[in-house]
Amino acid sequence: MIRSIAILSIASACLAGCTTMAPSYTRPDAPVSAAWPTGPAYRNSGADKSPDTRVADIPWREFFVDKQLGALIELALKNNRDLKVATLNIERSRAQFQIQRSDLFPKVDANAAASYQRIPETLSSTGKAMTVEQYGVGLGISSYEVDLFGRVRSLKDQALEQYLATEQAGRTVQISLVSQVAATWLALAADRERLQLAQETLANQQESYKLIRSRFEAGVSSALALNQAQTTVDGARVDIARYTTLAAQNENALVLVVGSPVPSELLPLSLSEKLTSLKEISPGLPSDVLLSRPDIVQAEGVLKGANANIGAARAAFFPRITLVTSLGFGADDLAALFKPGSLAWKIAPQITLPIFDGGSNKANLKVAETDRAIAVAQYEKAIQTAFREVADALAQRGTIDDQLAAQQSLTGATSESYRLSQARYEKGVDSYLQVLDSQRSLYGAQQNLIGVRLARLANLVTLYKVLGGGSE
Predict the structure, then answer these.
(1) Confidence category of residue 146, pLDDT binned at 50, 70, 90
(2) Where are the domains positioned within the chain?
(3) Quick one: which H or E segment has residue 146?
(4) pTM reported for the whole predicted model
(5) How far apart are CA 169 and CA 297, in angstroms?
């Protein structure tokens, strides 16, 4: 009999892994073009070049070569709370998968019991009160489902896909964190450089104001010129206050994303052109880029999990076999518990056949099928969103160098115009209004040049992110 119970348990476990009723999974076709967009905006984007190495395969430590930024990213990966939550979610999903997987195997429990009962003389067969003692020890399988139709295995597959999707979500959080730290660090660098420019402009305008005031007091310059000089001084003071606020707010944002106080030596003073090791980024084919992005892999994992749920819903229409077994020893005397003749065993298979459930099984199947349709739409939307993100970054990449060159030329020409207008004013050829207009144009061009340089560097960060870069 012991051999029969063991064989039955092993056979049940084997049957549990035979099949599922989940539909065969087929990856939906990507609802995007097979190539990146083309046109004037993408002329210099590198979209038509085949990369030697996929961007997603370049670790962030090799991409971001600035030592300050690298140390800051390291700090964020240790302390950022969103990344900690994502890591804990992965551990939770792994544990849930292990719980669901354990249902595939019989759970064997050991038990020992003793009972004492006094039977009154009015109920005793001997007419005398008596005490009955019972002792028992044994092993048993309690309520094990023989998974003939794959219901338990389908639930296990769904839990596995959920765990894998959560793991990919963790990678997505890390990629976003790396790019967020870099983008915030660059924004802080730009605002500090703008603040420095405003402070230098204020110092120059204060010197000009002093000169014009002395000329006014000597009767050489007009009150209009004096007031115009005052406006440039006040305008620079306004910008100093504004950029001081923006720099402080960006520093606060950096502290939040890093998750801890940021050492002052890791904060930038101005924009650095040596941010990354790559100046040219070739994305490769959309099919290679998009299907390897962790957020796309996560969406596909959710889809596979929904597909597995259909198998569990289908299996609910079929009989469910539950097995309860026990094997042990029993006696009315503790000393006789393991003597010959005390062997006890029990086998209690149970078959449950759904006959009438008010349509709940059919509704559950409909829910599972609808969940899969929703997952398909979400997967396709994730691909479309990723395609748009890459295309937008490539469009900016294709034109940003031309914009930077034009802005540098504009700043140089405006600087020369300001120098000439200043010289003409000092010789009495032009009024101070010409100097004021030239100075304002130069200051605006210089500020815009900082903005274009920031946009160029931020575009490199964005491209690295949307192409799946940012992993270890």
Answers:
(1) confident
(2) 2-104+147-314+368-466, 108-146+319-353
(3) strand 130-146
(4) 0.83
(5) 9
